[in-house]
Amino acid sequence: MSLTAVSTTARLPDLSRVPAVDEVGVNERVARFQSRSIKTTAKAEALRMILSMIDLTTLEGQDTPGKVRQLCQKAIHLHDSIPGLPHVAAVCVYPNMVAVAREALEGHDINIASVATAFPSGMSSLEVKLDDTRMAVDAGANEIDMVISRGAFLAGEYAYVFDEIAAIKEACGDAHLKVILETGELGTLDRVRRASVLAMHAGADFIKTSTGKIQPAATMQVTLVMLQAIRDYFYETGRMVGMKPAGGISTSKLAIHYLVMLRETLGQAWMTPEWFRFGASSLANDVLMQIARQATGVYQSADYFSKD
Predict the structure, then answer these.
(1) For the whole model, what pTM was predicted?
(2) Which residue of the set 74, 169, 178, 244 is catalytic?
(3) Number of domains, the chain
(4) d(CA 43, CA 141)
């Protein structure tokens, strides 16, 4: 398999030098993160931080302009009766819905993300993937979530995957590129580590676990391995790369465990929406319910919150 080389200063890393993952150690570390108890003021701060890191997402075949506008209204008005809430980081839609989202979010500091590159399978030509990316950017997306060619990666065609990511990065222009590894299809933590290293060297601004269409999606084990890869890449190059676990994170308690893991692995500098996102729209309602409980002392019914 071959791919026309792109103009880039990035170089394919030697993946044979990527260290093996200690799976037992990863599991033990994750268990310790899950044992942390975050309460009172720290929990209140964590909940607001989580809210600010969410990419509200609708990626269904039944998406309509009306549904996208409704999601954008939710992004703008999360819970108007609770003052001081942060807004979410972004709204994520298909390329043909970007213009709708741009119009609905006009005047608000909320990013517009779009999946591209034949999401979720990635099974198309580079030409189609580049057109998909350019269409989304031209329509107003300032973040692109691409999927890697998992078949090529699993076949050992690392140069192909590298060049494809680099080409999409170039097509993004000023838009940030999130590279989705679809870790549920990679099979092992060692492959997750290698794919993370490959994506970062190819120019990824973020690495992302999953499309949300394959199970398992995000897990704390997979996310820890990716965070460790980001840490080591930063030590090697001095370039910060963001992280986005996506799929299966639906409760505040679990999201707080992810924040603990983020803080203890990468440090305070990554504890912002600029460098960490949750791809989990259903998480927003649970976070809002927890915040409302802290404000009123009682849980509000789920009927008080819009269904994503």
Answers:
(1) 0.93
(2) 244
(3) 1
(4) 33
